[in-house]
Amino acid sequence: MQMRTIICALALLFVLSLGNGCKSPQKQESPLLGKAIEKATEAAKQLVATDHSDTLAMQNAILDAKVQQSEFQVARDTAAVNTFNRTFKKYLQENDPSLAKDMFIERPDYLEADDPWDEFEQYIDD
What we know:
The protein has 126 residues and is mainly α. Helices cover 67% and strands 0% of the residues.
C-alpha cells in the first residue's frame, strides 16, 4: 500500500470516528437529513476530484469534509451525522472504489452492534 493511501485511510478513519461522539435521544427523523446528504455528496465529490498523489490536498479535502460534518455534530443531530457518514462513504464507493477500499476498513459484524454502554449514557450526562 502506498504511503498516500495509508495517510488518507488513517486521516479519514480518525475524522469519521469522531462523528459517533454525539448521542441524542431523538429518533431517526431530522429536518437536517436532506442538508446532510447534500453536504456529504459535495464533500465526497471534492475528495474524489482531488489529486490522489498530493497527500496535503487529500488531507485538506478530508478535513473539509469533517468541517461539513461538524455542523450536524454541533447541532447534536445524530441522525444527520449518521446520514452524512453513510452518504459520504456510499458516494466514494460508487465513484472511486479504490479510494473507498483504502479508506474504509470493513468491520466484522460483531463490531457493528450497538455499544452496550449507550443505554447508560443518560446517567453519565446528568
